[in-house]
Design a protein that fits this description.
6 strands, single chain, disordered N terminus, 3 helices, Thioesterase domain-containing protein, Thiol Ester Dehydrase, Chain A, Thioestr_dom, alpha+beta, HotDog_dom_sf, thiolester hydrolase activity
Length: about 160
């Protein structure tokens, strides 16, 4: 590994850790960055009983899986771009293959498939730790560099924005 690759990897990992510490819902859910390798990010979440869909079940609420997939996918955008810029989720679609049971940690592995100046396309797999069978897959689209002129319904820019 060259020194420049070490610096980029180190910067990506540092950025990922900052992301998990500074984004309230990620911090509250206990998301952790496992790895950042090129355009791929792996995040881990240890389920808590308050994350279960029902008190009588250990099935994890789907919104927790959405949050994990969204966070890992957003980090994959930064990992591929190797820069921090305002980014917004445009679309996140999930296919559930089987229930997520809270007896093991969840892993989200997100890969940036295509990156342009304005849009990023991400694929994310969610698994139970220690099990290779998928729980869910997600495909996401992110808008990059969202800072700038604000647009509102009707298509006009807000004055002074």
């Amino acid at each position: 590994m060259t020194d420049s690759n070490r610096v980029q990897h180190s910067d990506a990992v540092s950025t990922a850790w900052q992301f998990t510490e500074q984004v309230p819902h990620g911090r509250d859910l206990g998301m952790q960055v496992v790895s950042v390798n090129g355009n791929q990010v792996c995040m881990r979440l240890t389920p808590e009983s308050w994350m279960f869909a029902e008190d009588s079940s250990e099935e994890i609420c789907t919104s927790v899986l959405y949050s994990l997939a969204d966070s890992a996918s957003g980090l994959a955008v930064f990992a591929e771009a190797r820069e921090l810029s305002p980014t917004a989720t445009l679309d996140l679609r999930m296919d559930y293959l089987r229930p997520a049971i809270g007896d093991r940690a969840l892993l989200a592995v997100a890969i940036c498939r295509q990156l342009t100046d304005e849009v990023a396309f991400i694929h994310c797999d969610i698994l139970s730790e220690g099990d290779s069978a998928l729980l869910a897959t997600a495909n996401a689209t992110f808008m990059r560099n969202t800072q700038g002129q604000q647009f509102h319904a009707g298509g006009r820019a807000k004055e002074g924005a």
